[in-house]
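Second attempt. The first submission of Enoyl-CoA hydratase, mitochondrial had a stray character pasted in from the spreadsheet, which I only caught after the job came back as garbage. Lesson logged: always re-copy from the clean sequence file. Corrected sequence (309 aa) follows.
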Amino acid sequence: MSLARACACTHGLTHMWHSLVCSRAPPARPPAGSRSAPRGARGQRRAGPPFQFLQVQKAGSKGSVGLIRLQRPQALNALCEGLMAELRRALDAFEADAQVGAIVITGSDKAFAAGADIKEMQGKSFQQCYGGAFLAGWDRVATVRKPTIAAVNGYAVSVPVSLRALCRVPHARGRDSWRSPPAVPITPSPGAGGTQRLTRAVGKSLAMEMVLTGERISAAEAKAAGLVSKVFPVDKLLDAAISCAEKIASNSKLVVAMAKESVNAAFETTLAEGNRTEKRLFYATFATDDRKEGMTAFVEKRKANFTDS
Ligand SMILES: CC(C)(COP(=O)(O)OP(=O)(O)OC[C@H]1O[C@@H](n2cnc3c(N)ncnc32)[C@H](O)[C@@H]1OP(=O)(O)O)[C@@H](O)C(=O)NCCC(=O)NCCSC(=O)CCO
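This time the job returned cleanly.
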């Protein structure tokens, strides 16, 4: 059983603290529809060195889902530079793979990820951070044009909360424990977009409280705040995320990318600029074969056959 205790903070919000010693976790098993010898994984091995911190494979009945599992259990998937470099490589590979229509990022039962690697950061100087543009490359998760789904299991601390905010269709499981980028006591201030993306996702009050206290919130609170779109029982989470990704992947990849760009404009620009972006992209869909096919299929009462063109 997962042990949980609730305490009300001064703002009247209820925070759940979860012990993650849990016997309910199912044994590790491949997700429904995953390919044990995925073509994508084989292709990536040919293209570069094997992954040390990730498990990368294609999933879904048609292999249309890129599945990335963070796998650094001894450090609760803390996001060291090596892991993030591999994550960029895996995302690049799925971005370039015409078979893949959406990407799922997940962790282990205990931790989605425990934030930036504190042991790696501990000795860094200003010169190393500024000169080396520390954390700058992490935005790759946000710039991927294919839809990304974060299937969040276990601890999601700091950067993963930002990482979740980078992923566009987040799912969480029922007993998650989310913690904001902690301002105190570990780091002086969040540095991977946590103060910006989290605030836009959940609003100033909750973001301010999470950032300043470092307190955790539960998956239910994350859902209520709009930080995740759905919450599932632990044994359903990954299959649900893959099935959502498959559904996205069955649509026109071209039009899905345009729609994603359009929704992101609402997150990143003014209303007027967002509306202009939407209109431009809407008009642009009329130049695609898939727009014609979608409407023709509707009128002819048949399933659309998209060609991503
Ligand atoms: C996630 C916590 C609450 C889990 O606690 P617990 O279950 O007690 O597990 P631990 O014993 O603490 O951890 C196991 C093992 O993992 C190492 N580890 C955990 N988190 C990190 C990390 N972020 N960096 C490096 N290593 C980490 C831990 O040292 C243990 O290793 P041993 O070799 O066995 O000692 C708890 O782990 C926790 O609070 N972690 C820190 C989370 C955090 O504050 N992250 C924010 C980092 S700052 C940041 O992201 C700035 C950018 O915005």
